[in-house]
Design goal:
Layout: H1 11-14, E1 56-58, E2 111-114
Parallel strand pairs: 1-2
Length: about 140
């Protein structure tokens, strides 16, 4: 998702402009896994989608830091291992099928972790080092 903001304020100032449409592209990036087809409107959890049965995808080639079964995890809390499962986007729901955490921005056409190491929020810091040489 691309976020554009003029100030460096709280999450509440910009969480409404985060785009969810990149999560609807198929196939899933770097794979041949096709998502359950959804329109932008159907991505909203409030919109009923008949027969919504997305495929489950967990990339087996990356290290997963959580158990295979997400039912063992207490979401929306800091768990007993110190893993912060509280989302910056607020509380998120858990699906009734398999106890998968739901993306708070809407349906993605997939269940599972995909290329992410954890169930639920995956908080990461990306450090970018750049060099600049001024020319005369």
């Amino acid at each position: 998702a691309v976020v554009s903001t003029q100030s460096t304020g709280s999450i509440d100032q910009w969480k409404g402009i985060i785009s969810h449409t990149l999560s609807l592209t198929s196939p899933y990036p770097g794979t041949e896994v096709e998502r359950f087809p959804l329109t932008k409107e159907q991505a909203n959890w409030k919109v009923k989608v008949d027969n919504y049965n997305p495929p489950t995808f967990d990339n087996k080639s990356i290290p997963h830091l959580d158990p295979i079964n997400p039912a063992e995890i207490k979401f929306n809390h800091v768990d007993t291992n110190g893993v912060d499962r509280i989302s910056y986007m607020g509380r998120y729901n858990v699906s009734s099928s398999g106890n998968y955490p739901r993306n708070p921005k809407g349906r993605t056409g997939l269940e599972g972790r995909g290329n992410l190491p954890r169930w639920g929020p995956n908080k990461m810091s990306i450090i970018i080092v750049s060099r600049y040489k001024e020319t005369a």
